[in-house]
Amino acid sequence: MIAESIDSYCGPPPVPDGIWLQWNFDPSAIALIVLIAIGWFSQGRKDSAGRATILAALGLIGVAFLSPICALTVALFSVRVAHHVILISVTAPLLAIALPWRRGPQLPLAPLAVLSAITLWIWHAPLAYEWAISAALPYWLMQLTLLVTSWLFWREIFSPERQVGPSILALLSFVAQMGLLGAILVFARRPIYSPHFLTTDPFGISALSDQQLAGLVMWVPAMFPYIAVALWLLVRFLSTDDTKHPETSV
Fold it and tell me: Considering only CA atoms, which of 93, 27, 38, 28 is closest in space to residue 60?
């Protein structure tokens, strides 16, 4: 049943020889790109940073949902996790820069961080994950909730009026919980995502190894954007503090 329903969106699990022919021109993905572009034209930043980040974000969305990567996520859980990592850790902050709050923090940061983390854990629970890829509607529910909660979180992180301390704490806390989820996948003794039990063999990898690779992706590379932004916030804060309180010579 799952394989049949998957056909309605990303197609059946691909084989290596034909993967690069499996482009997806689903209207839902194209509509998402168009709607985000319209939102940027009406409310986004029009400076060079805004233009660069919106183009990068839309490009990543196009690659994630229209390219053969979409089909590859059906076969390999590790690619699905990489897809999600790019969505929440790269695309979402780019959108937050291109589509920022007009002025000041608007939402409490801690609940947003918790909401983003809960969303991540829910969709990577085996039963929820299996349901999410069973048809187009739950698939897009998963993708949009991951993207929107992360976008709201990053918008607050980048708000110029947000205090640096809570922002860094929120970033590091998110990294910690994502690393925990990754570690659970890495050290699991058996594969737990049934849709991928029989789809990894054509790619020369077992379902367990694929799951462990997914955990490594979530555990290590996924943390880099969060750590990088935390360091950037800290350096910016220290630089601003030095400017406000210059050392006086005796």
Answer: 93
